[in-house]
């Protein structure tokens, strides 16, 4: 639902403006005032900022960059995503030209948020990764926390709660030790929990964050909190309480000239009135939500609108109309899932390119160095005690024990960073890096193949049986896949339901045979062993080349045939047969 966009908007508006200079003149003071005003009254802030931009000749370079940034935030606040994107792009270019790296990261973030609001998720992730290249050029943990937590929220928008959790945990490392959790951090955590279906935990966290989200007087934070709260109340069928919360939210919209994401407000109203049986008001708010929704038709919100229309028609006894709405909803859902699949792969390809520049492994390496430094300090302390209090033999024994402990801890930390806890295969980033290195080392005459495997219906399994059962299914299937690899094979987890197996020295026909064996063995797993009522199946895309060594292309082509398999119902093996394979 689109009200999650309040999370990323608060990422823009909840932090203080990042000024480029310490000396403050009249115009910079005015810009700081306008930045604060954009949190409360974006329309007024936009009008005043436009007047400043018309007199740009009187602005210093850093002031001009800042004015463009404030305009971008104001456009975002009133729901003008395309215009906000353009202004943020200009602001980022201006900041980079003037080496204002804080302002560049912030403006790039606004640009990325708008790209995602326009449905351009791949472009959004690319912009975020570009911004992260400059994260080491700023000495401000708040900026690093803000950027990483916003990336985490964007992964929730494509239902990738594992990547979202990963980035959120990295973000929390940059908060001051013992610092109180921010409202925005709490909202991202809640959305991750919601994706897991943990509504009771979401409600508990909402209650914990109530005071925090209302303390700062940021109207966007307050509205965001109220919409989440209303959604949870609807889930627990407390419709009257939900309507009261929504009425408070609507008053804030009106009093502060905020138009951002009103479609989500109306969609929640419709759900609450449907729960109470007031079908006329439910229909009215469904129509209002559809009118507010002006971007991509394949968006998840459009699918939810059609489902709600179908439920209202069914409750009214209009069964033919309900069937038509359900048919439209299924069509929209299919388009959305297909789009989501292509987005997921494109994001993976962008991440792989970023890995080649070591942008995504820096944080893991830093954590590893910190862990090793701590263990080294522990070893040095042990040496000191041993030297003073014991004989040489006892000292050597103590050092041996400490060294072994340090080695085990280092291995444990490396495993956490590089391997997936569920499948025991490599993490996505580590697999992409390792597989690319493996491809580069092989002799050109040596064949190589890639299997991309997806668990059919894993999302439905998670929803029906819970994520614990879904994790068990993934773990069991990864064991099957691993058994069919060799000592040179590389097994990795690319996404929520996606595994990858690199097969060096294996030709395309042999890879296809291995894939079919994996498919048959998976289908033969007794469902009761996995606490399921039906057998679990997999779809496998195969790509094998003798001369081409472009791993990204191999993955792309294997993933492409998976789309064809999904359209055919899944539980198949299909091989990409290129002209030069």
Radius of gyration: 26 Å
Mean pLDDT: 76
* CATH overall fold name of the domain at 428-575: Alpha-Beta Plaits
Tally of helical segments: 24
Number of strands: 5
Q: Identify the overall geometry.
A: globular
Structural class: mainly alpha
Q: How would you name the CATH homologous superfamily of the domain at 428-575?
A: Reverse transcriptase/Diguanylate cyclase domain
CATH architecture of the domain at 428-575: 2-Layer Sandwich
Description:
By secondary structure, the protein is mainly α. The protein contains 24 helices and five strands. It has helices at 5-13, 26-40, 42-54, 61-77, 81-97, 101-117, 121-132, 141-157, 161-172, 183-195, 199-215, 219-235, 239-255, 262-276, 279-292, 300-315, 319-356, 362-389, 392-418, 428-441, 458-465, 467-483, 508-523, 551-567; strands at 448-455, 490-493, 498-504, 538-545, 573-575. Strands 2-3-1-4-5 form a five-stranded mixed beta sheet, with helices on both faces. The protein is globular, with a radius of gyration of 26 Å. The two termini are 43 Å apart.
């Amino acid at each position: 639902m689109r009200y999650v966009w309040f999370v990323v908007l608060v990422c823009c508006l909840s932090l203080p403006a990042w000024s480029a200079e310490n000396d403050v003149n009249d115009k910079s003071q005015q810009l700081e005032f306008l930045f604060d005003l954009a949190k409360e009254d974006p329309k007024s802030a936009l009008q005043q900022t436009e007047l400043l931009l018309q007199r740009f000749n009187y602005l210093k370079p850093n002031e001009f960059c800042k004015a463009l940034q404030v305009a971008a935030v104001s456009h975002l606040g009133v729901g003008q995503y395309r215009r906000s994107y353009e202004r943020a792009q200009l602001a980022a270019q201006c900041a980079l030209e003037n080496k204002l790296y804080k302002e560049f990261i912030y403006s790039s973030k606004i640009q990325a948020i708008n790209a995602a609001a326009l449905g351009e998720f791949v472009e959004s992730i690319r912009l975020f990764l570009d911004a992260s290249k400059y994260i080491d050029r700023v000495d401000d943990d708040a900026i690093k926390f803000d950027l990483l937590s916003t990336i985490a929220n964007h992964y929730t928008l494509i239902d990738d709660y594992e990547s979202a959790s990963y980035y959120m945990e990295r973000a929390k490392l940059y908060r001051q030790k013992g610092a109180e959790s921010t409202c925005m951090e709490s909202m991202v955590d809640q959305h991750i929990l919601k994706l897991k279906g943990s509504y009771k935990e979401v409600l508990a966290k909402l209650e914990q964050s109530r005071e925090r989200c209302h303390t700062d007087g940021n109207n966007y934070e307050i509205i965001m909190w109220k919409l989440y709260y209303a959604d949870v109340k609807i889930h627990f069928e407390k419709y009257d309480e939900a309507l009261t919360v929504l009425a408070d939210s609507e008053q804030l919209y009106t009093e502060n000239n905020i138009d951002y994401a009103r479609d989500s407000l109306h969609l929640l109203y419709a759900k609450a009135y449907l729960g109470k049986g007031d079908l006329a008001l439910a229909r009215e708010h469904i129509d209002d939500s559809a009118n507010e929704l002006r971007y991509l038709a394949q968006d998840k919100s459009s699918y939810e609108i059609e489902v709600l229309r179908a439920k209202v028609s069914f409750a009214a006894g209009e069964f033919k109309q309900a069937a038509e709405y359900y048919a439209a909803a299924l069509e929209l859902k299919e388009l959305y899932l297909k789009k989501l699949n292509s987005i997921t792969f494109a994001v993976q390809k962008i991440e792989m390119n970023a890995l080649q520049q070591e942008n995504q492994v820096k944080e893991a390496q830093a954590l590893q160095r910190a862990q090793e430094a701590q263990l080294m300090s522990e070893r040095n302390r042990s040496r000191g005690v041993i030297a003073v209090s014991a004989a040489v033999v006892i000292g050597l024994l103590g050092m041996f024990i400490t060294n072994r402990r340090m080695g085990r801890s280092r291995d444990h930390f490396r495993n956490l960073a590089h391997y997936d806890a569920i499948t025991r295969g490599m993490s996505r980033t580590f697999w992409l890096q390792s597989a690319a290195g493996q491809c580069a080392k092989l002799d050109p005459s040596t064949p190589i193949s890639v299997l991309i495997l997806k668990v059919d219906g894993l999302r439905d399994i998670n929803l029906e049986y819970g994520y614990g059962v879904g994790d068990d299914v993934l773990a069991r299937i990864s064991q099957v896949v691993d058994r069919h690899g060799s000592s040179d094979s590389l097994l990795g987890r690319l996404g929520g339901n996606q595994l990858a197996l690199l097969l060096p020295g294996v030709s395309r026909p042999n890879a296809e045979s291995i894939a079919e064996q994996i498919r048959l063995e998976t289908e033969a797993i007794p469902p009761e062993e996995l606490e399921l009522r039906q057998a679990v199946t997999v779809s496998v895309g195969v790509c094998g080349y003798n001369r081409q060594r472009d791993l990204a292309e191999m993955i792309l082509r294997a993933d492409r045939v998976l789309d064809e398999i999904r359209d055919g119902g899944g539980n198949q093996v299909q091989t990409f047969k290129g002209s030069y394979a």
